[in-house]
UniProtKB/TrEMBL annotation:
This is tRNA (guanine-N(1)-)-methyltransferase. It comes from Gracilinema caldarium (strain ATCC 51460 / DSM 7334 / H1) (Treponema caldarium). Signal peptide: none annotated. Residues 1-243 form the tRNA methyltransferase TRMD/TRM10-type domain. It comes from the Bacteria. One of its GO terms (cellular component) is cytosol. The keyword tRNA processing applies. The keyword Magnesium does not apply.
Length: 276
């Protein structure tokens, strides 16, 4: 996977790629990256990259010319040009391999989640466009951008932060970055949140590690972890349980435990109502 990040502040991006697991993945050749400073593609002496929006309004908007030139330097192709090429070419599959997927990080984009992270992790290359100020000229979006993606329903001043969230969520899914076993047991891997985990010492602040984890009985540990995952998901993200049940993605064992735990909650609520 290659990540190309277009930004006004490449130092934010460079620091991330030069640390921790990411740095190791780059050293092994599993990940490649390039940061492009959009300001380098401004032609005036001040390297101006923003101006007031037509029609008025607060804030400034990023200019289309520097972004367009920066995108083309990254190998991005205008969508219409790609369509025209595909019409004249007898190998559209070949075209798709050549065209890089361009993503603009935007609060008005579709919501980023684990399913989308898996989809993007399957790409050979992603070009990530980081906005600032009030955003970018719509003509850049119309001409180059394949996906507008939001990392959540809130506003950030930095598109770079959003880009790094997307990168961190996707690169770890690429073969050779971290172990497959770690990925299988993570939150959202199968519609459930992760179970609680403990390490040494056995007793901390008078609280002891659950006995089952010290037992060495692998099947009992597996059952305990599954139950804890369901309990946590029911308490914190019941929407994930509902989604998983509708999609039929849970095993028979998981569905049985969900039903039992939901019954326990209903009985508990009923007892409370009677006492009141």
């Amino acid at each position: 996977m290659k990540y190309t990040v277009l930004t006004l502040f490449p130092e934010i991006v460079d620091t991330f790629f030069n640390t921790s697991i990411m740095a190791k993945a780059i050293k092994r050749g599993v990940i490649q990256y390039r940061s492009i400073n959009i300001r380098d593609y401004a032609t005036d002496k001040h390297h101006k990259c923003d101006d007031a929006p037509y029609g008025g309004g607060a804030g400034m908007l990023m200019l289309p010319e520097p972004i367009g030139r920066a995108l083309e330097s990254a190998g991005a192709v205008k969508k219409q040009a790609a369509i025209n090429f595909g019409t004249a070419c007898s190998e559209p599959a070949h075209l798709q391999q050549k065209r890089r997927r361009v993503i603009y990080l935007s609060p008005s984009g579709r919501l980023f989640n684990q399913d989308l992270a898996r989809e993007l992790a399957a790409e050979d290359e992603l070009i990530l466009l980081c906005g600032r100020y009030e955003g970018i000229d719509q003509r850049i979006i119309d001409s180059y951008v394949d996906d507008e993606i939001s990392i959540g329903d809130y506003i950030l001043s930095s598109g770079e932060v959003s880009a790094l969230v997307l990168i961190d969520a996707t690169y770890r899914l690429i073969d050779g970055v971290i172990s497959a076993e770690s990925l299988e047991e993570e939150s959202f891997s199968d519609g459930l949140l992760e179970y609680p985990q403990y390490t040494r010492p056995e007793i901390y602040d008078t609280v002891r590690v659950p006995e089952v984890l010290l037992s060495g009985h692998h099947e009992q540990i597996r059952q305990w972890r599954l139950k804890k995952r369901i309990e946590k998901t029911l308490n914190v993200r019941p929407d994930l349980i509902e989604k998983g049940l509708k999609a039929g993605c849970f095993s028979a064992e998981t569905r049985k435990l969900i039903a039992e735990l939901q019954d326990q909650v209903l009985h508990s609520q009923g007892d409370t109502d009677e006492r009141n």
